[in-house]
């Protein structure tokens, strides 16, 4: 009798867990994707021979994919690339450089009707490529790890489509070696871009 009651209890628990899993799965979509137009605003904070190094603001598209582990917790992979003009303030032209900073953020999502605010934090690894040296013989940028903070808001248009507003701050520094023709000058440049984006998303 005890074995039968124990067996019945285990079956009941199993059915209850499966029902909860099915209900949870039906409450939200596991995947979503967004396409944004973003403004990448660098805020360099280091100097080259006592002069400020300036990177231009860039306006580019950005694509991201989000996977929801639960209704509230998700991971977002952010993909985009941007070209920045680089110069010394009131000085020499450092040409331009392309940045490719794939970023992975862990997010927490809140729900308020059709509004879904979220916050996130994560890491990125930035590749520097397509370097133009400007007035110098050669410039080399080291690829680098950085950290990311994020806040945003989704607004549901229907069960599939939604609008998005997103703000990210990347904490990113790179070691730069500038060949002046008379020797190589090492510089550490803090890029630390603020990224503001608006776009549209799809759940699937």
UniProtKB/TrEMBL annotation:
One cellular component term from this protein's GO annotations in UniProt: outer membrane
InterPro entries listed in its UniProt record: OMPW
GO biological process, one term: transmembrane transport
Keyword Signal belongs to the record: yes
Keywords: Signal
Species of origin: Winogradskyella luteola
Segment forming the signal sequence: 1-19
This protein's record includes keyword Signal: yes
PANTHER family reported in the protein's UniProt record: OUTER MEMBRANE PROTEIN W (PTHR36920:SF1), PTHR36920
Pfam family, one: OmpW
Name of this chain's protein: OmpW family protein
């Amino acid at each position: 009798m005890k074995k039968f009651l124990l067996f019945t209890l285990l079956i009941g628990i199993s059915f209850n867990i499966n029902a909860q899993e099915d209900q949870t799965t039906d409450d939200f979509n596991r995947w979503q994707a967004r396409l944004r137009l973003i403004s990448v605003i660098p805020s360099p904070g280091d100097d080259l021979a006592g002069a400020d190094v300036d990177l231009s603001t860039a306006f580019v598209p950005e694509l991201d994919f989000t996977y929801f582990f639960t209704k509230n917790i998700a991971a977002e992979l952010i993909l985009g690339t941007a070209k920045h003009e680089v110069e010394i303030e009131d000085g020499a032209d450092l040409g331009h450089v392309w940045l490719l900073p794939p970023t992975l953020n862990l997010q927490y999502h809140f729900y308020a009707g059709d509004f879904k605010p979220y916050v996130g934090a994560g890491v990125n690894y930035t590749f520097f490529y397509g370097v133009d040296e400007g007035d110098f013989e050669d410039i080399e940028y080291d690829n680098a790890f950085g950290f990311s903070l994020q806040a945003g808001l989704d607004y549901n248009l229907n069960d599939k489509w939604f609008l998005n507003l997103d703000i990210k701050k990347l904490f990113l520094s790179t070691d730069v070696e500038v060949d002046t023709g008379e020797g190589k000058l090492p510089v550490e440049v803090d890029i630390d871009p603020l990224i503001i984006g608006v776009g549209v998303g799809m759940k699937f």
